[in-house]
Design goal:
Length: about 375
């Protein structure tokens, strides 16, 4: 039999696709619409902070609300959506301002002007308009990590001087802890209003998936049981719709590649393992060098048969890795921070144990399975001399 394609439109199961219909977010959508509604009458809406863990529909909802508000086709509003994680738009204050200016149809060279000149230009441009600017800054934590919060301070302050236009900021993030380090003035002005997106439950994920599966997959190859399984796995983890969509897409790819007749629960299980493997490997490969060497030291100790490893042993191996590879060792304090970060990333788990009057130390356990362990060991041993 000919190899059959399982997809009618694979794009619909990818992250970039914006669905025409949004499920289970009526409450959030109407709250946001209410908060932004004054802009229809040329009045400045409150700034808004949208928070929720990954895959809870924040980005898709903001884009949807923007589109719907604009469908009302109101010349009083100019909406700008910027994803701050994208490097070329936000890794310097200059680039960020240039991106905003370009959205306002003012071309700015990639470099060369003083940043101050961009602020002046932005002010001039805005003051010439009679509009409310709705500026959505998605992945706002990435912006603050890269360039700090001064730009936010300046953007929120600009309104006091503007006569004809006003700017409202909609900050979006899946990481609430970054707000702790914000200038208190920025923090309070950003969070005039706050909306939280809770994780989806299994039933909600199932509805989201059913709709996408109907549009993306050929008829008769995907049972409801398969959809429920993808939804259940994603609900158990984080209630993340992106994860549920990934599971279904990868399961369909696996079934197609195998020349099977339909997608089965087994394909979903294999997809889960594959995605987990990809995630761990990608995460480890993108860590900074010293963090990788600390993690590699831990892998080596486990390979030697250590069930529980103590931080002192890690320092020793890490120090010899540094020597062989021409790196200057970090202080014990910093290494200890890196170990905590690896714990937070879920690659290891640590427990503080007391050694009586000799103080305290940490016991480290590995939190990854055999397969990623093997892949990562090979990866690191190619990268570092041992
Ligand atoms: N309520 C929904 N109805 C339909 N599709 C949804 C819904 N919620 C999320 N999705 C889909 O799930 C995926 C993830 O959603 P989205 O990108 O909006 O998440 P997010 O909250 O912005 O996550 P992150 O914090 O990681 O950026 C997208 O493909 C989106 O189309
Ligand atoms: Mg998002």
């Amino acid at each position: 039999m000919d190899k059959q394609s399982f997809f009618t439109d694979k794009h619909i199961l990818t992250h970039n696709y914006i669905p025409p219909e949004i499920y289970h977010r009526d409450e959030q959508i109407s709250k946001i619409a209410k908060i932004l509604a004054p802009s229809l009458k040329l009045e400045q809406p409150s700034n808004l902070f949208v928070y929720g863990t990954t895959g809870t529909g924040k980005s898709v909802v903001i884009k949807y609300v923007f589109k719907e508000l604009l469908v009302a086709n109101n010349t009083n509003i100019k909406s700008i959506y910027i994803n701050c994680k994208l490097r070329r738009v936000s890794d310097t204050e200059y680039r960020m301002l240039a991106t905003i200016l370009r959205e306002l149809n003012f071309p700015v060279p990639d470099t060369g002007l003083p940043t101050e000149a961009l602020y002046t230009k932005l002010f001039e441009l805005l003051d010439k308009r009679h509009q409310i600017i709705l500026l959505a800054l998605d992945e706002l934590d990435a912006l603050v990590t890269k360039i700090g919060d001064e730009i936010l301070y300046n953007l929120t302050r600009i309104n006091t001087e503007l006569q004809n236009s006003k700017i409202s900021i909609i900050g979006i993030s899946n990481n609430i802890s970054f707000t702790e380090n914000l200038d208190p003035r920025v923090k309070s002005s950003l969070s005039e209003e706050e909306i939280i997106f809770p994780p989806y439950n299994a039933l909600e994920l199932k509805n989201i998936l059913l709709d996408r599966a109907n549009k993306a997959l050929k008829e008769g190859i995907c049972s409801e049981g398969v959809i429920s399984k993808c939804a259940a796995i994603a609900a158990q983890e984080q209630g993340d719709a992106r994860r549920a969509l990934d599971l279904l897409r990868v399961a369909a790819e696996l079934a197609e590649r195998n020349n099977d007749l339909e997608i089965t629960q087994k394909h979903v299980e294999t997809a889960e393992q594959k995605l987990e493997l990809d995630r761990i490997v990608e995460l480890s490969k993108t860590q900074p060098k010293h963090s990788q060497m600390v993690f590699y030291s831990i892998l080596k100790l486990f390979e030697k048969g250590g069930e529980q490893i103590l931080t002192g042993d890690i320092y020793e191996i890490y120090s010899s890795l540094c020597k062989r590879n021409g790196f200057r060792m970090l202080t014990n304090r910093r290494i200890s921070d890196l170990i905590s970060e690896l714990d937070m990333l879920g690659l290891i788990s640590t427990k503080v144990i007391s050694k009586g009057r000799y103080g305290r130390t940490r016991e480290v356990r590995l939190a990854i399975a055999k397969k990623p362990f093997d892949i990562l060991k090979t990866f690191f041993s190619d990268l570092y001399e041992t």
